């Protein structure tokens, strides 16, 4: 009975936008499913189950043998997704009374069945399932569940369900393999805490709070250390006698996308740092790094054109020695000593920025012009390395954002709690239209930054000023000016305007400003770093 | 029979079936607005359909002369025998059976073959020409058991007791069917209704369809207040969830009861969190089974996916013809934006 149950879970997850609701669905799954199914489902959701033998082409051949080609073509055209079309159109075979397969049965058989026998096996299961079950099966065996469950979310649900600290779950997690019988035994107090010795495991990261004005007096050169905040992605490098792994901030393993980093991890240590595209020691803008993200494998050409490195800023383990309880200064000394001793390829140290006063730091922050610098990090010299966001230990102090006054062009309804609000806004700037006039060109989308009151106001304004509708999108009168702020502007070939914004959000509604006085695209172009502005 | 801009026209009888514009004489299959239009001269329909029309368009616009035709009763007009037979679509919905000079044509209107506690079951009538819809005329549309879909709604209510479950359902037929199915499944709490559904639910009750305790969705105590009706079921017209009206509810789980929910992209585009595949139209198998049962050598397809259905009929040796009737679409898609309704009644 478990594959239909898993299909129901997938179905609900696929349509559920809210994080809390997703957590509730996952907790329910762990609570109601037996071993080993609950663990297999968990592995499937977090992408730990991979079957190589079943390809979408095989499914397509199976359905082609059972349906009229014209009807299949019309259906595929309408549905748009191959797996879903097959799941829906699969003709019921009368007289089939085999029960639907169990999740464990599917996994075991997928691993042990010779490739030539797979089509028959798959067809037999498809005959025994309903449409939802068929869709789940096809997505499961061909890979591609895509239901918006990150490893982190799954672990949070596990922790909530068991009343355990999520950091504890993280610690034991990566030594485990599906169906995680030892994990569930521990969480249900039926077994000991699984040992993660010797395997590379993800250690929960220490996170920073944004620094606000009231906190300024507490910062000083005696008590705090300053570093640049680089605009890359946070990574943890974990190399032990049992293996090597590169983790993202969200505890996803991303080793496959960065083989050159893994190759350089010729040591035993756990390190915290920033993954960056670096060319001759120069950090490239985030857009360059983006080209390398979310890839399971990476071509040699990509490795050559977008070379990556890691800027190290902390050490958690030196060999088997846990350094996390040491104060920052002591860890930093250990990191420098380790680096001098090991001299790893593709890595360097995040430099400490000397400062004598808060005023000096403010000047340093304001003077930073490099595109890859987001601002400053301030860390208490005596802070141990603790999981999560520890108030008052680490601060991030982003560079003052850039801003433009833009004109609202389109609005889209949000999801979940915001499904009755037009909460996603596309805004544009003016440019010459080549015929002596001015035209608006969209430059970005923002869906945050406003207060609840402002959202109510904009929502009403949009409903009253709609000029056209395209599905969930409304085009509006080009009369409302909004002040948009963002962390950086970058060149982009993918945007009509030629510019992409980092973290755009709404700072203010400028109802006082006529639309024709909104900014020109040229103003934004002058903010692109790495290109010399006209002045 | 002829297809005219007004709709299907019976030449010897000189009347129309479900015409899109005002005509001197019309036979109406059911009360949905793409079939029942106002301001005809003489209207022949079931008692229930006429009652629905009077509620929706006002007694004076539901036909200058309103003639109730009982199920099975034969009305002869200009030599054409007119008979109404249940279509199983919504309360009062009928097929129109026309006999003239020894040949028979059946205009099915919209129909389904599944059991529906709120209306009579479809009766197949053997004929020479069968006129069918094809709203769900693609083999991807095979509706699951409606009771099981209601089961999914009840399970979600147990899982999220702190949230309102808002079910989008068309005001005529679907809403009452969902309510009746919920009652069959044992849900005996009051079911809360958006203002746009109240009148038709009252009509169903007065025509003997028991719906259990119903209540209007209350107005929040203060303007902009929310958090109402946690753990309750609320029914509203489709896309009411896009209006400000919905903000009074407690973090609503947006559900929609429609055959279109079968296709994920459709459900996602509407922002639905719990799609319930409950349809009042025949699915692919029902269309083909019905055509086989009525044994008509010729089938006319009024609207929907006529391309696929005509192709499938040809494979079975049946001559199919697409009529491309104007103004006919799925009633659930074809209506005015619900927020107009919602904001007027809120």
TrEMBL record, chain A:
A Pfam cross-reference name? DNA_ligase_A_M
One GO molecular function term? Answer: DNA ligase (ATP) activity
Q: Which PANTHER family match?
A: DNA LIGASE 1/3 FAMILY MEMBER, DNA LIGASE-RELATED
PROSITE patterns from the UniProt entry: DNA_LIGASE_A1 (PS00697), DNA_LIGASE_A3 (PS50160)
Its Enzyme Commission number(s) read: 6.5.1.1
- Give the top-rank taxon of the lineage listed in the UniProt record for this protein: Bacteria
Swiss-Prot/TrEMBL keywords:
ATP-binding, Cell cycle, Cell division, DNA damage, DNA recombination, DNA repair, DNA replication, Ligase, Magnesium, Metal-binding, Nucleotide-binding
Q: What is this protein's name?
A: DNA ligase (ATP)
SUPFAM superfamilies named in the record: DNA ligase/mRNA capping enzyme, catalytic domain (SSF56091), Nucleic acid-binding proteins (SSF50249)
Q: Which reaction does it catalyse?
A: ATP + (deoxyribonucleotide)n-3'-hydroxyl + 5'-phospho-(deoxyribonucleotide)m = (deoxyribonucleotide)n+m + AMP + diphosphate
Q: Which residues form the ATP-dependent DNA ligase family profile domain?
A: 312-431
UniProt xrefs under CDD domains: Adenylation_DNA_ligase_Bac1
From TrEMBL, chain B:
Superkingdom of the organism of origin: Bacteria
- GO molecular function terms attached to this record: exonuclease activity; ligase activity
Q: Which UniProt keywords apply?
A: Exonuclease, Hydrolase, Ligase, Nuclease
Report whether Nuclease shows up as a keyword of the record: yes
UniProt keyword annotation of Hydrolase present: yes
Q: Which residues form a coiled coil?
A: none
- EC code(s) of this entry: 3.1.-.-
NCBIfam families per UniProt: Xnuc_lig_assoc
- Name of the protein described by the UniProt record: Ligase-associated DNA damage response exonuclease
């Amino acid at each position: 009975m478990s594959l239909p149950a898993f299909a129901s879970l997938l179905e609900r997850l696929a349509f559920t936008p809210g994080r809390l609701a997703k957590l509730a669905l996952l907790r329910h799954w762990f609570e109601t499913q037996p071993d080993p199914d609950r663990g297999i489902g968990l592995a499937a959701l977090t992408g730990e189950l991979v079957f190589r033998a079943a390809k979408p082409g095989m499914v397509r051949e199976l359905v082609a043998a059972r349906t009229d080609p014209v009807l299949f073509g019309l259906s595929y055209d309408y549905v748009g997704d191959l797996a879903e079309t097959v799941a829906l159109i699969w003709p019921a075979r009368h007289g089939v009374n085999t029960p639907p397969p169990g999740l464990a049965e599917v996994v075991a058989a997928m691993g042990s069945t010779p490739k030539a026998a797979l089509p028959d096996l798959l067809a037999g299961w498809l005959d025994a399932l309903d449409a939802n079950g068929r869709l789940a099966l096809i997505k499961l065996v061909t890979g591609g569940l895509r239901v918006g469950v990150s490893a982190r979310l799954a672990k949070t649900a596990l922790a909530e369900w068991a009343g355990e600290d999520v950091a504890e779950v993280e610690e034991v997690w990566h030594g485990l393999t599906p169906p995680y019988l030892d994990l569930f035994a521990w969480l249900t107090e039926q077994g000991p805490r699984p040992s993660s010795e010797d395997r590379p495991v993800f250690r929960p990261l220490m996170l920073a709070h944004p620094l606000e004005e009231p906190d300024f007096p507490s910062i000083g050169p005696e008590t705090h250390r300053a570093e640049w905040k680089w605009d890359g992605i946070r990574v943890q490098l974990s190399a032990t006698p049992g293996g090597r792994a590169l983790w993202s901030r969200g505890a996803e393993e991303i080793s496959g996308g960065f083989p050159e980093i893994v190759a350089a991890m010729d040591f035993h240590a756990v390190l915290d740092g920033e993954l960056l595209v670096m060319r001759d020691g120069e950090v490239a803008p985030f857009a360059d790094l983006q080209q390398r993200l979310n890839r399971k494998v990476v071509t040699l050409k990509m490795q050559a054109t977008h070379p990556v490195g890691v800027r190290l800023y902390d050490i958690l383990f030196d060999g088997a020695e846990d350094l996390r309880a040491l104060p920052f200064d002591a860890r930093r000394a250990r990191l420098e000593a380790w680096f001098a001793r090991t001299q790893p390829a593709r890595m360097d140290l995040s430099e400490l920025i000397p400062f004598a006063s808060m005023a000096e730091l403010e000047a340093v922050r304001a003077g930073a012009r490099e595109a890859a610098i987001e601002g400053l990090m301030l860390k208490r010299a005596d802070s141990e390395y603790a999981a999560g966001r520890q108030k008052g230990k680490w601060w991030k102090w982003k560079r003052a954002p850039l801003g433009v006054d833009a004109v609202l062009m389109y609005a889209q309804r949000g999801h979940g709690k915001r499904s009755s609000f037009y909460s996603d806004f596309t805004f544009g700037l003016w440019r010459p239209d080549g015929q002596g006039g001015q035209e608006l060109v969209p430059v970005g989308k923002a869906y945050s930054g406003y207060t609840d009151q402002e959202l109510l106001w904009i929502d009403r304004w949009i409903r009253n000023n709609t000029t056209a509708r395209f599905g969930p999108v409304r085009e509006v009168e080009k009369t409302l000016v909004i002040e948009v702020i963002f962390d950086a502007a970058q060149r982009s070939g993918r945007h009509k305007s030629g510019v992409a914004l980092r973290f755009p959000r709404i700072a203010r509604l400028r109802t006082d400003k006529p639309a024709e006085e909104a900014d020109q695209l040229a103003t934004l172009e002058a903010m692109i770093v790495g290109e010399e502005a006209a002045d | 029979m002829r297809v005219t801009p007004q709709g299907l026209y019976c030449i010897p009888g000189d009347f129309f079936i479900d015409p899109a514009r005002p005509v001197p004489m019309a036979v109406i299959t059911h009360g949905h607005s793409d079939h029942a239009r106002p301001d005809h001269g003489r209207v022949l329909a079931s008692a229930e359909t006429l009652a629905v029309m009077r509620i929706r368009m006002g007694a004076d616009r539901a036909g200058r002369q309103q003639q109730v035709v009982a199920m099975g009763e034969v009305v002869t007009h200009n030599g054409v025998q007119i008979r109404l037979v249940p279509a199983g679509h919504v309360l009062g919905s009928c097929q129109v059976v026309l006999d003239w000079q020894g040949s028979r044509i059946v205009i099915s209107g919209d129909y389904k073959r599944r059991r529906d506690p709120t209306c009579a079951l479809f009766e197949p009538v053997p004929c020479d020409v069968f006129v069918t819809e094809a709203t769900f005329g693609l083999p991807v549309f095979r509706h699951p058991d409606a009771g099981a879909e209601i089961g999914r709604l009840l399970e979600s209510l147990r899982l999220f007791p702190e949230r309102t479950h808002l079910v989008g359902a068309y005001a005529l037929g679907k809403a009452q069917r969902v309510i009746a199915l919920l009652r069959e499944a044992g849900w005996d709490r009051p079911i809360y209704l958006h203002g746009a559904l109240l009148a038709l639910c009252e009509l169903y009750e007065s025509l003997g369809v028991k719906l259990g305790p119903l209540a209007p969705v209350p107005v929040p105590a203060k303007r902009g207040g929310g958090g109402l009706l946690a753990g309750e079921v609320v029914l509203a017209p489709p896309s009411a969830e896009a209006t400000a009206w919905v903000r009074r509810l407690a973090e609503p789980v947006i559900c929609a009861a429609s055959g279109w929910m079968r296709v994920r992209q459709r459900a996602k585009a509407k922002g639905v969190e719990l799609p319930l595949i409950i349809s009042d139209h025949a699915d692919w198998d029902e269309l083909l089974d019905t055509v086989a049962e009525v044994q008509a050598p010729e089938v006319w397809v009024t609207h929907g996916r006529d391309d696929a259905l005509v192709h499938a009929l040809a494979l079975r040796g049946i001559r199919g013809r697409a009529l491309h009737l104007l103004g006919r679409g799925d009633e659930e898609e074809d209506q005015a934006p619900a927020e107009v309704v919602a904001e007027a009644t809120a």
